[in-house]
Description:
Blueprint: E1 5-8, E2 42-46, H1 56-63, H2 66-69, E3 74-78, H3 86-91, E4 97-101, H4 102-112, E5 116-120, E6 128-133, E7 148-151, H5 158-166, E8 175-178, H6 184-187, E9 193-197, H7 201-206, E10 209-210, E11 215-216, E12 222-226, E13 237-242, H8 249-271, H9 273-286, H10 297-311, H11 322-334, H12 356-367
Parallel strand pairs: 2-3, 2-4, 7-8
Antiparallel strand pairs: 1-3, 4-13, 5-13, 6-9, 6-12, 10-11
Amino acid sequence: MRHSIRRRLLAGTAAAAAAFALAACTAPTPAATDANFTPITDIKLQLQWLPQAQFAGYYVALEKGYFQDEGFDSVELVPSGGDIVPQDALLNGDVDFAVAWVPKVLGTLESSGAELTDIAQVVQKSGTLQVSWADSGITSVSDFEGKRIGSWGFGNEWEIFAAMADKGLDSTKVSITTQDFSMNALLDHDVDAAQAMTYNEYAQILEVVNPATGKLYQPSDFNVISYEDTAGAMLQDAIWADTTRLADPAYADAAVRFLKAVIKGWIYARDNPEDAAKISYDAAIAAGDGGAFPVGPTHQLWQMNEVNKLIWTGGKFGLIDSSAWDKTVKGALSAVNQDGLPLITKDPAASAYSNDYIQKALDELAAEGVVVDGAYTPIDVTLTEGGK
């Protein structure tokens, strides 16, 4: 079911900001400055999944009035439970911006011939894991041949194929087995190694009672392979804009104002993880997703803690690291799927990413006295059964 959260921002629209020209080689240069353009005040953002702390910065920005501060009258955060493909929603004009993993969008761009631009790389490190039982003998990607390797599909398997290609494995000899968005496939021994995110499914399995001990499973019960430690690591949550629309000064202006609000939301989530987790939990409950997925408060706090680790990695928020981008593209180009077919066959267009919009947002915030730099200090989170 598609859920939509819409909250009206009460303050009046801020005075129109002067349009700007962004000199960039990786994105279209906005049209000449026109001080008379009408600012965009209503925005829709397509999320990649249901409300959870993975998207805390957006929910915080909504809750704390940061979008209002940047002149928006209304902002709609549109969740997806797998029924909406974020980049497709953006290409179709259903939303103004979208959150999606870079490799998934690269596949869409090649297959469709369309153009989208990554204007902010929110998540800087891969949070994908492959989790197996401690006695499985699966301790590295090299052990995948002949095994049932779980994946959610929908592009989430690209890191698996890229990591296997780097090790010279024959992808047709690995059984990529579809699993649902839980760890039941591993618990039921339907897969030998299950896909998991550090901030979600890995916590799910540690929130289950081990029948042999009567206590929660422990990390020592499992082998964990992190794709961040492999050649298969790919860039994940990014904010995407419509490349063609970026030539419109009003849309380009809205992109920067939107990013400013988002940056402030993620700064707050970094500095106040407990409150940000609660805001995310409340959003999930309000959307009616509390019964279907583990959105309990403890689970959300774990998620907030782990997501912050992937975002605040020492560099400036949202800047696209060209080496990480190139690694993602290289991995996608080198890999073939279980049918022996390539994931992509050519480099994406130069317009596929640009640091100009996020840099302008960071510069404007710094000029306004917002401290945009900073490290995250992880907190201790004790998991509970079911994440409650």
